[in-house]
Design a protein that fits this description.
The chain is an alpha/beta fold and 237 residues long. Helix content is 23%, strand content 34%. It is globular, with a radius of gyration of 18 Å.
Length: 237
């Protein structure tokens, strides 16, 4: 099956039942076509269906070698792995090759962010803007409601909002929060792109909330976020 540049078929190969099931559920709600596997044999047998992206856990036998052989412009691969013994605290995504991304000690929400934001056309690498930890109180205006939440993490293009009752996908909202050191309120529109329900929170090791893509940022706002993220949350040099 040829899905073209923007195919949405994703294979998830992970022996960990809770993580595999939650990731499959969230990505399915986002409109991706999901096939999931708990072992390498079933995964390999299904490869004739040509996924656009594979999420594979390193605990599967031969996963690292298989990820390198599969990674291509037509099929991106995210290899989920444990941190090295020399650096147990490390967490994040690193490029293994041009088409293989290694996610070390990452959680389901972080994987969803990469997939939802950064499946790119075959030309070029997987692009993912860096994110920094949040913790900023946020006023959320949604339809005729005003709710309070917190920014869990933030990038130049969006954020994950920690909120008790996350909105449905494709809801537009107004966000008001203050970035440290700026001295003024940051206000912008946002669009919800995915969510973690309270019932999914424990399995995902994430607070309930939603991913938000910023809309209609001014040039000054974009520049402010660029500086803030580049300096890892510190605007001062």
């Amino acid at each position: 099956m040829n899905q073209g540049h923007f195919g949405k078929r994703i294979f998830i190969a992970d022996p960990r039942d809770p993580e595999r099931m939650v990731l499959s559920s969230i990505l399915g709600r986002l409109g991706y076509e999901i096939s999931s596997f708990s072992n390498m044999d079933d995964f390999l047998e299904a490869l004739t269906e040509q996924p656009r992206l594979v999420v594979m856990h390193a605990q599967l036998e031969g996963a690292a070698d298989r990820a390198l052989s599969l990674g291509s412009a037509e099929c991106r691969v995210i290899l989920v792995d444990l941190p090295p013994e020399s650096s147990h605290a490390f967490s994040g995504f690193v490029d293994a090759t041009e088409h293989v991304l290694r996610g070390i000690n990452v959680r389901v929400p972080e994987i969803v962010m990469v997939i939802n934001d950064f499946i790119s056309p075959p030309e070029g690498m997987i692009r993912r803007p860096p994110r920094v930890a949040g913790g900023y109180a946020t006023e959320i205006h949604l339809r005729d409601q005003v709710m309070m939440g917190h920014i869990y993490n933030i990038s130049v293009t969006g954020a994950f909002l920690e909120i008790a009752n996350p909105p449905e996908r494709d809801e537009t909202m107004l966000l008001k929060f203050q970035l440290p050191h700026t001295g003024e309120m940051f206000q912008c529109e946002g669009l919800s792109t995915w969510r973690v329900l309270p019932s999914e929170s424990a399995a995902m090791r994430s607070p309930p909330g939603c991913g938000v893509r910023f809309l209609n940022l001014t040039a000054d706002q974009s520049s402010l976020l660029d500086d803030f993220v580049e300096r890892k949350g510190r605007l001062e040099p």
